Each structure stands twice: as C-alpha cells, then as structure tokens.
Amino acid sequence: MNSSATTWTPERKILLACAAAGNDESARAELCMLVARSPDWNGILTNAESHGVIPLLRARLDELCPADAVPAAVRRHLRRACLSSATQNLRMTGELLNILQALEEAGIEAVPFKGPALASQLFGNVAQRQFRDLDILVRPGQISAAIEVMLSRGYLKEFELTAVREAEYLRSEHALQFHSPSGEFIVEIHWNFGSRYQAFPLTAAAVWERLRVVSLQGRSIRALSNEDLCIYLCLHGAKHGWDRLEWICSLAQLMRTQPLDWPLLFRQAVESGALRALRLGLLLAKQICAVSFPATVASQLSADPIAASLASQVKERLLSSAESQQVPEIRRQAFYIRTRERLTDRARILLLYWFRIPHPHSRDWELFRLPDSLSFLYYLLRPLRLLGNHGLRLLQRQDSI
Q1: What percent of the chain shows pLDDT beyond 70?
Q2: Which of 12, 73, 82, 278 has the fewest CB atoms within 10 Å, i.e. the most exposed one?
Q3: pLDDT class for 373, splitting at 50, 70, 90?
Q4: pLDDT value of position 7
Q5: Is 136 in contact with 189 (CB distance < 8 Å)?
Q6: How far is CA 346 from the centre of its chain?
C-alpha cells in the first residue's frame, strides 16, 4: 500500500470506491464497509461536488448500499442535487442544439465536444455527467462569423480587445468565451484545442478529417473520433494536473463504452507527441477506476516510469486533505511539461511560459496596461513579474524553516 495511505480519509476513500466500483468487486465491498462506519457526509458531499461526481455518488449508493446505511437527509440532498444538475444540463443541451442550428444556418461547420455531447456519448444520458459550460469547435477561417452568430443571440464576449490585440489573441490562443444572456453558463468557441504556448499536440486541423456523426437528443451532430476524444481527454487532464476525479471517470467510461482502435490510438499519440500524456491518462483510468486493458496496452503503460511517477502524484493529491488548496501556477506548469515526452515540446512550453504576450485575464495584463504600440514589452515584463513572484515565495519558505 502507498505509504501515504494512512492519511487518506474515509470520506475520500468512499469517492474513490465509487469510481472503481463499476469494474472492481473489492471496491464495491469497501464502499459498503466505509458507508457503514458513519463517515462525515458533509465532507463527502462537498468533495463530490468539487470533483464533479455527484451523479456517480448517488448512483453507487443507490445501487450498492442498504437504504438504511445512508442517512435520509443525505439521500434527499443527492436527489435534489441530481435533479438540479439534470435540469440545468437539459437547458444547456437545448441551447447547444439551438446554437448549432444558428451556426449551420450561417454556413459554419461546428463540432460540440465535452459538455452534453460527451455526456450523451459516454452515458447515453446528459443528466449522468456534471458540466458547467459548452464547448464548440469551428474552423479557424470561420471564427469571425461564429462570433457574430453568438453576439446576435445576445451572448456577451468575455472581454473587448482592440483590433491589434484581438488579432494577436486569435493567433496565440485557442478559444473565446461568451457569457449567456442569463449569465447562467459560458459557451466557448474554439478554433483549436490548446494555445500556442501549450504546444498542444492534438490540432483541430487533424481532427476535422476524422470526424464522425452521433445523435444528441435525436439530432445528428458532428463528433470527434473515439481515438481523438481519448487523446484530447488525456491532454486536457494533463494540462490541468488531473485535479478533478470526474475527468478520470469520464476517460474510464470512454474505455468501457466505446470501441477504440488501440494501434491507431498509440500511433496518433506517438506522431503528435502525446504518448506520455496518453499513458498517464490510461494509468489513472486503471488505478483509480479499475479499467482493464489488453496485454499489448498494459505493456505500453509499464514502459514509462515518468508516467507512473506522475500518476502517483495525481493519486496522492486526489486523496490528500491539502488537495483543495490551489496549486501554484509554476507547479502546474512543471507537471504539464513532464507529461510531454519530446524535448522540443518541453523546451517550447518552458520558453513560452516565460516570454509571451499575456492572456487578457492574466496577472501581467492587470499589472501592466500597455498601449498596442508597446505590447512587445510584455516579453520583458512577464519574466520579471514571474521571477519576483517565485523569488518572494522561495524567500517566504526559507523564513518559515
């Protein structure tokens, strides 16, 4: 057992048992045993909400645990939370279909991914997965037209930029956020899957050639191929440090419910520089959700000790009482760099982390409001700001010793 296991709380163990119970008989037995010990239900519900697994928790408790083992108040809370989530999901699904219709009428090709599209593909029911926004991919040449469609529907852009800054933003970033007229949710219009600074291996140009058609609420929509979706979920998790249990559960559900061409999947990962991120995601699906793999895939997972080390880090953080604390930006970036196997990709990410034009919501933008004619100075100001922040943090750490 991991040496940190003694610090794992029963409440966190319950959530992990829920994640593994779909494939592991011992996890089912452990879940019932832990529930019978009168755990801290407030802590369980708080963690389930922060990790996006309220529907999973309710389903596992209803399926596997005796009715009297779970307090009636907890069951009522879960029932209300799931009803509220399902109602919101259905509203957002309807709005997604309306947006896709409007984009189609404007001659814009669009691919929804994550959100209700992912919930429907993996679970057959948009109510079975918690999500908070809508993500739609369009072709780069149709971004301006897509923006006009969103504005015509009453959506508000995340921020307003000058023409020069907007051109730079569209070159370097990958998505633009819009707030719904009601303010209830966000729609992200993507033209790529990651910013230039992330050296994101999965490019939109590649996936357009491999799309498929699926059904969402009786409507035919475009969708990523299963292999592209798998790689995307692994890269998305790696970029954010895999700090939500729901991301691992969704990846595991993809393995359980969708056919995957394993040789093609690994070939695409190797060609794009996403092999370690893929191995990390599959290791987490195996270790957290008890997913089993063919022997050829299992041998791939044991071939990368760095991926194994990263998986251990993720498991410790998911199970640690300190997990809820915000991970410093530089540590999150260091984790992401380690998920990339190619030296050129790691060097590019590191270089552009320090030297780049900032995102409009970044700390650099707040501290230094430069006119367009002086925007090149951000390449000098950003490293100075980062050195100041990280140097101050290091000094504070030394003072506390």
Answers
A1: 84
A2: 73
A3: low
A4: 59
A5: yes
A6: 21
What is the 8-class DSSP label of residue 216? E
What share of the chain in percent tops pLDDT 90?
69
Model confidence at 384: pLDDT above 50? yes
**Dihedrals φ, ψ of 138, to 5°?**
-125, 165
Report the C-alpha gap between 71 and 373 in whole angstroms.
63
Three-state DSSP string of 311-341:
HHHHHHHHHCCCCCCCCCHHHHHHHHHHCCC
In the numeric block, the tokens 């780069």 are attached to 140
E strand or H helix at 187, and its extent?
Answer: strand 186-190
- Laid out side by side, the sheet with 186-190 consists of 110-113, 133-138, 186-190, 175-179, 156-157
- For CA atoms 328, 331, 335, 337, the dihedral sign is positive
Lowest mean pLDDT among 184-193, 246-255, 342-351: 342-351
What's the mean pLDDT when you consider all of the chain?
87
What are the backbone angles phi and psi of residue 173, rounded to the nearest 5°? -100, -175
The pLDDT assigned to 219 comes to 95
DSSP-based three-state secondary structure for 200: coil
Q: H/E element holding 46?
A: helix 41-50
**Whether pLDDT at 268 is above 80:** yes
Q: Which residues of 199-212 are buried (b: 16+ CB within 10 A; e: fewer)?
A: bbbbebeebeeebe
Contact 104, 116 (CB under 8 A): no
> What are the structure tokens assigned to 203, written together?
């490019």
**In 3-state terms, what secondary structure has residue 138?**
strand
Q: Residue 65 gets which letter from DSSP?
A: S
Q: Which of 267, 257, 282, 280 is nearest to 206 (CA)?
A: 267
Higher pLDDT, 65 or 330: 65
What is d(CA 358, CA 351) in angstroms, rounded to the nearest whole number? 14
* Section 215-242 average pLDDT: 96
Mean pLDDT in residue range 319-334: 69
Q: Where are the beta strands (DSSP E) in 139-232?
A: 156-157, 175-179, 186-190, 212-216, 219-223
| Contact of 44 with 9, CB cutoff 8 Å | no
pLDDT digit string, tens, across residues 35-78: 999 899 999 999 999 999 999 999 999 999 998 999 999 999 99
In whole angstroms, what is the distance from residue 146 CA to residue 162 CA? 18
Rounded to whole angstroms, the Cα distance separating 196 from 34 reads 46
d(CA 324, CA 244): 10
